Amino acid sequence: MKRSLISAGIIAVVVAAVGSISHASGWFHGVELPLRSWLEKLNGPGHDLGKVWQYVAILVLAVIVELLALSWVCSLYHVFFAPLPAIVTVALSYGAALAYLAFEGRKRAGIPLTVFNGKLSRNEIARLRSGEIDFDGSARAFETSVVVCDLANKYDLADDDDASVVTKASEKFTARAAELLRDAGAYLHAADGEGVVAVFGFPGALEDHARAFAENSSSGNGQNVTAGAHVGVSSGSMITAPTEEKEDIFVLGEPIELARRFCVANRFYGSKILIGPRTFELANNAIVARPIDFLSGVNAQERHEIYEPLAFTADAPSELVARRDSFWNGVVLYREQRWAEAYHEFQKARGPNNEEDAPLNLYLRRLEPLALHLMESSAH
């Protein structure tokens, strides 16, 4: 009997190994993909079980099936082998291993993962639990990109409409923007009447955090978080740490303050999205953007150049790039106080059919009296 048990165990391990190798080699994809599609239609999208757990599950199930088969074989020789204690032992061992790893994962994080509920997507929380995101809960600095998003016409609504109308519009916008940013992989720092603050690059370090918002926040129907919104994006170092009660995450850094300022500045320049110099530097190869102006920083001595993204480089038509270049030349000439040349370049930056371009019109309004004065002076 002992030899039979050993043989059954060896067979179970061999069968599990064959099954694991077959799965890793992709032999079952033709069957798994239709099954996965059917399950997602029934229950919604899900994430893959980790490879380690996938193979452990195969081994456990193989052992259980072998024990049941062994019991049947023994019965053929009129020997009763009770498989239940062995099956319960295997199941409990597997469950204990899962519980231990889950406990160790939480202990490793130093804080309960429930503090991320509502602040991260289910997918990101699953990555935290599985250990794919290495987060130990200690105070540390992250390189991040902070997105501040607010309803574009909020103050106009406040002046013209009933308070209840403003509240409902703001609540609806905040909920939708928070959902889109969270699904795009951001950590939701705040979502209230002052707008939505989301952080890309925390709790999992993200090398391309400056591009993550623009590339991932579009939804399937073509709508995105910038529709009807003012957005400010600033990149830089942020310090994060759990609070003393370990019930929340403390976030500190200049990018939040700058992103708020960039967001509000859209109202003055008539733009939708403004990004800071560090974000522009990191995402410059992926986007077509133009300089708008300088804004003061947290310190009065600091000045930050802000840029307006126009399109992704891969999707930008040559006419748009040419108009961007003319606008850029106009800004440089304007700063050098070469008014007539700046005015000429800005005229070249006009879009087809005189399409609305608020930042361009702002510069033209500034230059018209100066250009007119120069023309009058040259005439005399």
Characterise the protein shown here.
Helices cover 55% and strands 17% of the residues. By secondary structure, the chain is of the alpha+beta class. The termini are far apart. The model is unreliable at 217-223 (pLDDT under 50).
List its traits.
six-stranded mixed beta sheet; elongated; alpha+beta; 380 residues; two-stranded antiparallel sheet
Quick rundown:
By secondary structure, the chain is of the alpha+beta class. It is 55% helix and 17% strand.
Give the C-alpha Rg.
30 Å
How far apart lie the N and C ends? 116 Å
Tally of strands: 8
User: Major β-sheet, in short?
Assistant: 6 strands, mixed
Strand content: 15-25%
Tally of helical runs: 13
Overall residue-averaged pLDDT value: 77
The helix fraction, in percent, is 40-55%
- The run of helices and strands is HHHHHEHHEEHEEHEHEEHHH
Layout of secondary structure:
Blueprint (H helix, E strand, L loop, with lengths): L1 H23 L4 H15 L7 H26 L7 H26 L12 H9 L9 E12 L2 H7 L2 H21 L3 E6 L2 E6 L8 H8 L12 E14 L6 E4 L1 H16 L3 E3 L1 H7 L3 E10 L6 E10 L5 H18 L3 H10 L9 H22 L1
Helix pairs in contact: 1-3, 3-4, 11-12, 12-13
